[in-house]
Amino acid sequence: MSADSARVEAAIEGRREAVNDAIAEMLPVTRPERLYEASRYLLDAGGKRLRPAMLLLVAEAVTGVDPLTEDYRAFGPEEIDIMAAAVSVEVIQSFTLIHDDIMDDDDLRRGVPAVHREYDTETAILAGDTLYSKAFECMLQTGAPADRSVRALEKLATTCTKICEGQALDVAFEARGDVTTEEYLDMVEHKTAVLYAAAAAIPAVLLGADEEVVDALCGYGLDVGRAFQIQDDLLDLTTPSERLGKQRGSDLIEGKRTVVTLHARDQGVDVDALLDTADPADVTEADIEAAVGRLEGAGSIDHARTMAREITDRGKRRLEVLPEGEARETLAGIADYLVERDY
Amino acid sequence: MSADSARVEAAIEGRREAVNDAIAEMLPVTRPERLYEASRYLLDAGGKRLRPAMLLLVAEAVTGVDPLTEDYRAFGPEEIDIMAAAVSVEVIQSFTLIHDDIMDDDDLRRGVPAVHREYDTETAILAGDTLYSKAFECMLQTGAPADRSVRALEKLATTCTKICEGQALDVAFEARGDVTTEEYLDMVEHKTAVLYAAAAAIPAVLLGADEEVVDALCGYGLDVGRAFQIQDDLLDLTTPSERLGKQRGSDLIEGKRTVVTLHARDQGVDVDALLDTADPADVTEADIEAAVGRLEGAGSIDHARTMAREITDRGKRRLEVLPEGEARETLAGIADYLVERDY
């Protein structure tokens, strides 16, 4: 781990406890208990709190205050509860994971059973629905001037709509062999990147930043999210299963399109024939190694790495609208961190 | 049908086309088409548009204008798009039906297959999630002053949370034999009545009505919703299957608690033994008739009728804060209509 990575991890870590405390306070396990326990289950199971940390850092960067010197529950001269917005974004993330796990019939999440496995599908649907409205309730509790609250809520609502659209596109693409890289990146923007954009732009809106700053932060968040997903796709191919926490090459096995396989396809590689076994259970580590070798040979791994790097650098440049300082440096560091991480 | 009922039906009918047009405009079937088709499927399959009609009538009653004389898309001197709020409430209703049908594994809704049957469970979950955020987007498009928009959104978000809580309570009660009438009514308030309350209170908020008026309308909506549910429970027992559109006595067959069966239980009737057959498919019309006869004998049918009537009358009295006029009369008529309907 580089010194920069260590600094970024410390910055995220340094805000995690405050985020966790706020989640516990804003989402108490109240009647009906089973519903609220299920709603909290995944939130309590862990998670880096990357998006809330980004949101809090943006608040600090926008206002030019030294990190961790302001009270997040009464931030700046207007005493805005910026933490309520951070919780809102994390709660949306949790809601989407719960519903996605039902849709994909995934059994595990964050090392624990998915909510629909630990409870049941009915409770998991309802827990997700509850978190959905709770996220809006949280975003309404920042105490920001009403015109800014309205804009933050617009951002939150359109973000949620886009996440749903992205998930629908992801499902639709599974049945199609002719998805283009452009379509794939559009799907990633909808499904993954918009929530980073919301995390980056909403604090600026709530704190009354200029439109130019809000737009730049939105672009930063989108780029960070895009690069995050490309790196995720790369790690699936290049990281040993035991470090990945799931089967290496699972995207290849499932026939999922990514920037890597779409590039290889365009280079004439028959990507559906890369793993020449009918039964996913028969796929060996050697099969994966050979398939990745062919993708490397086609230049597809390098292509995706270069793309993720370029998107990250573009995202970092967008931060130039912010005052220089530690918070801005850390936001740039987060962008690097997400594309340099090895798991 | 009484003259009053005819007038109420005409008032709802007279607003339905405008509501349908606004739904089509605010929820266009755009990319990804399958997602938006599934999201629109139930909305397009019918429905009385009772809640949007109530919302539009409240707007007219609060401002004291003659019904159907103002443009709902630019209502009053501030030209507020009150129709956007009406669509928002209907969209929330549709989202809850789609997810409820998945949870209850119901096959039919409004005479057509449930969304998870017509499409699939994944698409139905996602269609509901999409409608959820679209409802917030609609509520943000009224053009009302920001402080009122924030209050309307608060009302919408807390309403959604309560609907989820109500659904969770409903599920939890199925496994309990000791539910009290008070608990049942609390569940009904959460699951059903709060959306009527939102439909009645939100236009008043958006149009800047006094707090007293908003509170009274909220109370009116809650009472209308409570009485609506009690009448629903009564109709399940007293209406022939062919008119009901589902098996008469289905609540009894499923062992669902209602005001009727809870009263009977408190009178010493063994309500779980009312239908003495192990297999629901074996239940005959004569079995239902006999069971309803015992509930009548215990005074439970009359008890529920009286309760629904009293709640309705209380709801109507709350309208006295509004200016007299046709819109107010129609709102009182809706309260009567819902408790007098025979299907």
Automatic annotation (TrEMBL), chains A, B:
Top EC group: transferase
UniProt EC number: 2.5.1.81
One Pfam family in the UniProt entry: polyprenyl_synt
Annotated gene: idsA3
Gene Ontology MF: a single term: metal ion binding
Keywords, ordered alphabetically: Magnesium, Metal-binding, Transferase
Protein name (database record): Geranylfarnesyl diphosphate synthase
Stored InterPro entries: Isoprenoid_synthase_dom_sf, Polyprenyl_synt, Polyprenyl_synt_CS
Cofactor(s) it depends on: Mg(2+)
Assigned protein family: Belongs to the FPP/GGPP synthase family.
Top-level taxon in the UniProt lineage: Archaea
Keyword Iron: no
Organism encoding this protein: Halomarina ordinaria
